[in-house]
Amino acid sequence: MAKIAPFEDFSEEYDEWFVRNKDKYEAELRALKYFIPANGNGLEVGVGSGKFAYPLGIKTGVEPSQKMADKARKLGMHVLPGVAEDLPIANSTFDFVLMVTTICFVDDLKKSFQEAFRVLKKEGFIIIGFIDKESELGKVYRANKDKSHFYSIAEFFSTEEVLACLSDAGFGAFETRQTIFPENDTQHIENGFGKGSFVVIKGLKINKSCDQRSILINTQY
Fold it and tell me: What CATH number does the domain containing 203 carry?
């Protein structure tokens, strides 16, 4: 069942976070943009109000919350109703799939990644942006999740857990970037994971018969 109630009831409050935390938002955008191709047909799953897709040049999204989807449509985006586990998209349609702060709200992480795999073209790739549950900010979110309309229903993951699930779904050749460091440094972005709270993973759609777990790059601390 889609976890949309907070986004329907508190959509304005959700968008206000990006205004109050402009520095973090811009750092996340820069980290994501590193993996966004200049030319390519992309889809954002869990597009929300378009806060990431629109500035990154992605024109199509899937979103279960009508109120959030309506906001993205006002930006000129094409938004389809649906959930990550059952995308209303034909096989092999997109060059890349983006999911930003979405995985903590899905019901079935592996199925969500399998659906992304399905809708990607042969040499397509997935980009995941999320707060690592083992990071400083991740620990704060988890400790205070019951105080948040949104995170009270969220399930957080570590980078290792996300990489393993992506691998099981058929992705490999992983690259990672990180930002938002403990010293509140939002200007710095570097490869890898383990220090920054916001992690971006890029994974290629590869042959499922390969040993994906042995094909990792730029994932060291």
Answer: 3.40.50.150
